[in-house]
Design brief:
mainly alpha; two-stranded antiparallel sheet; two-stranded antiparallel ribbon; 11 helices
Length: 356
Amino acid sequence: MKIALNVSAAIGIVFVLFMAVGVFIAGWDRPPLETTQIGYRGLGMEQVTNPRTTGASLAVNAVPELIDPAPPGGRPANQAYQNVQILGNLSEDQFNRIMVAITAWVSPEQGCGYCHNLENLAEDVPNKVVARRMFQMTKHVNQDWTTHVAQTGVTCYTCHRGKPVPEPVWFEGPGSGPSKGMAGYTSGQNKPSLAAGLSSMQVDPFTGLLDRPADVRVVGKTALPTGPGPSIQKTEATYALMLHMSTSLGVNCTYCHNSRAFLAWDQSVPARNPAWHGLRMVRDLNRNYVVPLTPVYASNRLGPRGDSPKLNCGTCHYGQPKPLGGAQMLKDYPELNAAVLTPVPGAGPPPPPATQ
């Protein structure tokens, strides 16, 4: 009996130790890992990849099958159909082609009825109003944000990947704890978030950097302190943002920074420049396109504070340094660069123009 109890106790201790170790190393990547040196030895300028997770990232970044281009010519779409306020300058065949593509990219299970009233396709239902604004946003990115997307551009598939709402989006946090008022406000502290790389740093200040202007800087410019530095909250927000960008792109910090001088632009690698523009692009899109659509969204699409789903770096990148591995889908769908606003009499005011 005593031996049995000792054996049971030993098994219990081993089980507890096993669980403790499992929790402790849950965020680790077990070997083998692949390391590529991108700078001088001794600086830690390396990119580390996990071959076991790379496959999953490549799968979600596969490019969909090309839809045959539409023949040129034919009557304009705004003459063939009613209430075509966007893309009305395309030919009827071009318009139909891009509608088929969008159905496959955004709502393959729901079909055309996701954005349209099938009894009256011309009617302005909420999802159609949102889609109209998304056309304008896509054109805005492709034409006004080449500092980030270059000539590769984006399409609806870049974000949606076959789903009505892209998976990597974010909402403002609940902002409250067990009690009400200031005592219960946690800003998401100690609540690990996927958006913040599963860290326990405050989420609300970090996500705020993605939809409003703010300096992202915590490193001093002098060797010794010269005055009060950034607050702990701002520091955590900055580091949470960096973790988010690293996780979203599937890269290390050294993909953009030189590890010997993170602040110095003249010692940074080239990728830091498009990343800087990318952060500002996300703010522009959230402020001028996504957030203004909040009254249009159905209540079940809103966050705990009633805000709309907003973009972040992962919304396009899905774990890759370049969305879809750098595939240039836009050149195959030039219709997305032709989102000219053609107001229809009696159809209501058009959406306001966006500003950076």
